[in-house]
Amino acid sequence: MAIEAWFMEENNEDKRLPHHRSPKEFVSISKLAELGVLYWNLNPNDYENDKELQKIRESRGYNYMDFLDLCPERMENYEEKLNNFFTEHIHADEEIRYCLEGSGYFDVRDKDDRWIRIWIKEGDMIVLPAGIYHRFTLDTGNYVKLMRLFVGEPVWAAYNRPQEDHPSRKGYVRSLTEKVGVSIEAH
Ligand SMILES: [Fe+2]
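C-alpha cells for the assembled complex are given below, as produced in the milestone run.
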C-alpha cells in the first residue's frame, strides 16, 4: 500500500489524532518529491537481507544504522521526548527513517508553510531533506520501531524554528526555487 499524506487541520486536539481537514485533502508522493521528501516501500520482515534496502544504502551512502523503539513502557521521559520530537525543527543532514513496526506521523512544511502529515507504517521508508521544517509524533497506536540511517557518524542535533539563516535551511530554500525553475522551463 502506498503511503498516505494529507494537509493538516491545525487545532489543539491530541497530536496523535490524524488531524484531517474537512473534506480530506490528500497529498501525492510526487508532491512530496517536489519538497525533496523521498519514499520507498520495503519488506520490514527481511531488512537484514533485503537487497533493495542494501541498494538504497549503497547508492546514498547510508553506512550508519541503528534502531529506535518508541513506546511509553520502554522509554524514560516518554512524554518529554515526544514533545521534543514534536517541536518544529530542521537538521543539517537528511533525516532517514524506516518503519519496521507500528506507525507514526512525520509532519513537514510545504512551500506555502502548510503542514503536511505523512503517515508511516510498517515497510515505509522516508528521507526528509536537510533544512526542511518538520516534526514527529506517534499516532494513537502509541508504538513505533524505526531504523535510523545516516551518512557517516550520526549527528542528531535539531535546530528549532526559526532557522532562516542556517546554511542548510538556505540551501533547502534555494533547492526549492531551483526545482520550480526547472519545472517552468520544462513546460
Ligand atoms: Fe527531526
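Helices lie at 29-34, 51-60, 78-85, 167-186. The pocket of fe (ii) ion is lined by residues 89, 91, 95, 134, 158 (CB under 6 Å). Further analysis is deferred to the final report.
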